[in-house]
């Protein structure tokens, strides 16, 4: 089983959106028994909080199912547990590289790198723009699923 962990600052907006979008893409592809998806935070700001209301609203609008959850923080143990650890922005990448001592197993990448773009997924916590975030997340998750399927 391939295991994916999406990571952002607080685990209530972007990484959670990516988790639920990817779970739906995996379900639609008939791969739920082969791919496990979760999300976590780099920082402790929102530990224990549920998904941001703006993320929930956008997921509802797009017909993406989601469940109640509590934000959790990534740990070094997660580095061993997951095959793919996907950051949403350059700050996340710095945090992840520091936590994993430089990513010796090369499991970490920026979500939009998977689409050939070298940029961050904008944080809707600051922008309030969940539409653009969804577009980026969907594009990145689609590219990640394709990468996994062709490996």
Automatic annotation (TrEMBL):
The active site is at residues 8, 14, 123. It comes from the Bacteria. InterPro entries: LMW_PTPase, Ptyr_pPase, Ptyr_pPase_sf, Tyr_phospatase_low_mol_wt. Its EC number is 3.1.3.48. Residues 2-147 form the Phosphotyrosine protein phosphatase I domain. The keyword Hydrolase applies. It comes from Selenomonas ruminantium subsp. lactilytica (strain NBRC 103574 / TAM6421). It catalyses: O-phospho-L-tyrosyl-[protein] + H2O = L-tyrosyl-[protein] + phosphate. Belongs to the low molecular weight phosphotyrosine protein phosphatase family. Transmembrane segments: none annotated. Keywords: Hydrolase, Protein phosphatase. The keyword Hydrolase applies. It is an enzyme of class 3 (hydrolase). Gene3D superfamilies: 3.40.50.2300. This is protein-tyrosine-phosphatase. SUPFAM superfamilies: Phosphotyrosine protein phosphatases I. One of its GO terms (molecular function) is protein tyrosine phosphatase activity.
């Amino acid at each position: 089983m391939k295991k994916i962990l999406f990571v952002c600052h607080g685990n209530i907006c972007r990484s959670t959106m990516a988790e639920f979008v990817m779970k739906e893409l995996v379900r639609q592809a008939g791969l739920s028994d082969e791919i496990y998806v979760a999300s976590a935070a780099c920082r402790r700001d929102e530990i224990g909080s549920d998904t941001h209301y703006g993320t929930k609203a956008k997921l509802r609008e797009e017909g993406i199912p989601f469940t109640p959850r509590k934000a959790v923080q990534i740990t070094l143990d997660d580095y061993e547990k997951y095959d793919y650890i996907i950051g949403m922005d350059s700050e996340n990448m710095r945090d992840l590289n520091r936590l994993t001592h430089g990513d010796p197993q090369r499991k970490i990448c920026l979500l939009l790198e998977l689409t050939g773009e070298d940029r961050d997924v904008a944080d809707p916590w600051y922008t309030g723009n969940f539409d653009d975030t969804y577009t980026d997340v969907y594009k990145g998750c689609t590219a990640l699923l394709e990468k996994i399927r062709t490996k």
